[in-house]
Amino acid sequence: MEAEQKGERRWQRRLHEIIYEVDTVEGRAFDISLIWAILLSILVVVIDSVESIAQHYGDWLYRAEWFFTILFTIEYVLRLISIRKPLRYMFSFMGLVDLMAILPTYFSLFLTGASYLLVVRALRLLRIFRILKMWHFIAEGRIIAQALYRSYIKISVFLLFILIMVTIMGSIMYLIEGGENGFDNIPTSIYWSIVTLTTVGYGDISPVTPLGRFFAAFIMLCGYGIIAVPTGIVTTEFMSAVQKGNSSQSCPNCGREGHDADAAYCKYCGSHL
Amino acid sequence: MEAEQKGERRWQRRLHEIIYEVDTVEGRAFDISLIWAILLSILVVVIDSVESIAQHYGDWLYRAEWFFTILFTIEYVLRLISIRKPLRYMFSFMGLVDLMAILPTYFSLFLTGASYLLVVRALRLLRIFRILKMWHFIAEGRIIAQALYRSYIKISVFLLFILIMVTIMGSIMYLIEGGENGFDNIPTSIYWSIVTLTTVGYGDISPVTPLGRFFAAFIMLCGYGIIAVPTGIVTTEFMSAVQKGNSSQSCPNCGREGHDADAAYCKYCGSHL
Amino acid sequence: MEAEQKGERRWQRRLHEIIYEVDTVEGRAFDISLIWAILLSILVVVIDSVESIAQHYGDWLYRAEWFFTILFTIEYVLRLISIRKPLRYMFSFMGLVDLMAILPTYFSLFLTGASYLLVVRALRLLRIFRILKMWHFIAEGRIIAQALYRSYIKISVFLLFILIMVTIMGSIMYLIEGGENGFDNIPTSIYWSIVTLTTVGYGDISPVTPLGRFFAAFIMLCGYGIIAVPTGIVTTEFMSAVQKGNSSQSCPNCGREGHDADAAYCKYCGSHL
Amino acid sequence: MEAEQKGERRWQRRLHEIIYEVDTVEGRAFDISLIWAILLSILVVVIDSVESIAQHYGDWLYRAEWFFTILFTIEYVLRLISIRKPLRYMFSFMGLVDLMAILPTYFSLFLTGASYLLVVRALRLLRIFRILKMWHFIAEGRIIAQALYRSYIKISVFLLFILIMVTIMGSIMYLIEGGENGFDNIPTSIYWSIVTLTTVGYGDISPVTPLGRFFAAFIMLCGYGIIAVPTGIVTTEFMSAVQKGNSSQSCPNCGREGHDADAAYCKYCGSHL
After folding, report:
1. Which one of B125, B264, D50, D185 has the fewest CB atoms closer than 10 angstroms to its CB?
2. Given this model, what pLDDT does residue C215 score?
3. Looking at the complex, does the CB of residue C239 fall below 8 Å from at least one CB of chain D?
């Protein structure tokens, strides 16, 4: 009995190693296959939305979709049986994403009609979040994420300030253009302000009156100065992250810090680090 | 008599504490309620400008507008009677903003007609400035404001330089396109230059002649280099703010701050830190 | 004879002080008046190009133009007679700019016709360069100019690299869209590449074929990374300019550098700087 | 026999010096002539694609094209006979580029028809890569290239992150606008997301529904914060490149470089600098 349990545990542990970890050759191969499967399944959904392709290769795409759905279903079941606490996994963020990756296709059997199809297709694309699981492959991603996270509050405050500004600017513009020339109402004018301040500039709405153009030019020059702020924030965080990274070591002899990451000897006193 | 005056002072002081300060629980609650009231009242004005919504929910929006106006009127009166120098408050920037937040709705009783309505609506949106009162909630905002303030002169000089450049570029473009293809006059051409140099690029006016396109490409590549300048200015200010901020120690002798992180002696009076 | 010459010299020197220098009250007043005259004369030229204004206020603008032309002529003559080497001034850059500021209006007496008018108007705008004379008012301008000047070579090399890239990108796009959809020839396609890479994006020409859009998206993402380069160059120059500015002083006691601009005592050893 | 071989070697070595090296006056003159020839030949191809020019000066452009092709053919042959290992050169990147610079024109003798002409013309433009050979003229280019190369991995990770984001954003937008208003399918919506996030903003596709505009504004404000990331990465690399560059000293013991400006001991081997 105990031996059987142990045996069960052994293949479970083996499966767990392959599916959840990247230390073994098989685990690494599993992860890489999974990334390809995710990317290909996303490609299927994306090109399925192109009418001309869907008309010609609809059958193949339908089969490919079911192939990936069954593959991800098998993976989901294997994940459930190889983990010690299946419920905790099921209700974790990644567990829910994994479930969302397979449910829509099964739903599509019951829900028919073009409008439902659109939603189902979009839901399938949530699979893309599964790529985030592979993030641990990439060390560089952590540095960027940290720098962004640390500048998170400053950028939020900045965005709040931008929101106040675009509300005021949009309202003034609504007043100047007199509710015409595309500036039909204040929300639309605010939308235009954001399009202008972020230098996107679609041109679907653009000022026509001389005063409107003058004020628009003013907004653009403001945006010129303002676009510098988030850049300044993030750059500062990056640089202090790099400087912090350099000085994590202190010399055992003279105790001074600030050594490069590849330093083997203290640059101040010459003793081995 | 004196006791009564003291009693009066007590509720006045209590009211002052709630309205003007954030130290007490009630004061904090008051501030947060106020922010919500301001945001909701702005939302009412903004969506009231959308015709389709105004037609259906016009009555409700009208009532909501009056609700907020009366609320802000009560707040304004309370502010007046709870402060020691009401006149100074009335003519302060924030006092005028507070007054502007309630006046337009009362004006709308006397002024009728679509064109007046537009102005009244825009004036109501000045309430958004009242959110600036809440700025003290946000410590991060101060750092951004300081960095922008310190780079204020440099950015102004830079904008002056940009203004000279766009005048010249606009005039050349007016000459090249020969007053046609949307480049009808020099102000319009200057407007186009600003749209191009700031990389907004609406496309409402765009060069058509080969020479015009060549010159436009030249302007864009200039803008590429020039857009770097405000970013460079602001980033530099941010970084020196952070480096200064690292050494928040103040001198034990003269009490001044702003020493570098590696400073051992006060740079102002020379005493040991 | 000598006394007379001396007397002549005295009023000449006095005039020279007023016109060329800013140390005296009169010199400063002269400079400020001149800036206003230049700005107003530019304004006259700019608004004269707007047809609707020219039709109504044409006479006034014509008189204003002649007023400023005569004013600048007097100034030019005064500059000539108050300087010791008039010829050197005449053929200096500023002397030529000053001459260009008055000549076009006199030319307009002989040259008639709409096309000449356009050129004359544009030439008049060269007056704007005279504002550069006032640059010495602004200390901050020098820092920006220096940072830009020092990054001049790097940005030139970068622009050369961009020019090679846009030629290749434009040619590929010309090939993909098959000389249609606005991509009529290679120069136009290169123009489109520049519009896209600099994130201006007019939309007068935009890809229509799927492959064209795919490649355009690729160019945009490249531009995303590439726009960072001039910013990085200029920011680095700004920061080293600031750091240089800080460390211009070395301590007379310990000889170490890196003191702030406002430091009175060495931050390392505490001795007076 | 041996003398003859030596003589052959002598003119070969001389030719090698001129063609492959820049130490001699002739070598430098050869390189500069070559740059001009490349630039002019590119100009010929570029303006040949403009129909109005091709109609008038077609003959001259045809002759110029053959002149440059024969010139580059001679250069290619000289390169082959003056180098010791001709095969290695032939199959090197630069050798293949050199071959690509002459082949298309010869191909054009056999391939006729407008569609082939387009391809041949584009292939001829590959000559532009030959300018990269001249890169050694420019020292500044190396610094930029190094900074870009070092931030290569970080920017790649960042672009991967952007690709995931635009896929999600494009899909949501496709869902919101319901496959209409230009958002016909998911690839097109992803294209629109990239156009928006990179702040290019053609305006060929732009949201029309209120919810679509709201979400588009959200994407733009995200892009505002996100555009800061590559700038932050590159600027940080530039600055550490400059700081490293300041201390260009190499260790007298192990000869390695890259020490900080304040280093007194080699960080690799610990010997005194």
Report:
1. B264
2. 93
3. yes
